[in-house]
Amino acid sequence: MKRSQFLLTLASLSIVGGSFFMKTNFSSTNEPKIITDTLRYKEIRNQLRSDNDQVKHFPNEIPTDAKNVRIAYSPEFFQIRLKQPPNKIEKLLLQYRSIAKHKYRGGDTNNHINQPNGVPTTFFYTNDSPTESFPATYEILVLNTDDKGRPGFKWNHGDSYGVAISSSASEIIYWSEKW
């Protein structure tokens, strides 16, 4: 009896310990990586070519007039934030507004999906502060979404992509999400 209790306890500890080890090792690979080395952009974008629809709206290269470039990347999302001249931002805003399927003002994916006919979007991963919600000055323009959940469990899996643009900050954020 004592030997079986010992083996049961040992097995339980092994399962708990193994689960902790796996969680810490695998979850750290999904953490967003903020990249400021703009030379890595093309490498990351090229890795995502298999998901061409989700990244085709991203620029092929970082524009030469872009400032304060920040890239956030994980296997689940890709986001690049660029400060551009105001006239260029206004052009991009008009271009993307005309093709957006959903439009939001500020907030994050949790706010957006919980609105009537809402869809998942993104968090502000490239923000300079820990806040992951977009300020109200940003227009979040969803170019497409794909619900891969099952009936009764909407948006359990899927993807979405688009841009977030702030005219006042003269910034555009290109984003793509998978979950």
TrEMBL record:
Taxonomically, which superkingdom? Bacteria
Query: Which named protein is this?
Result: Uncharacterized protein
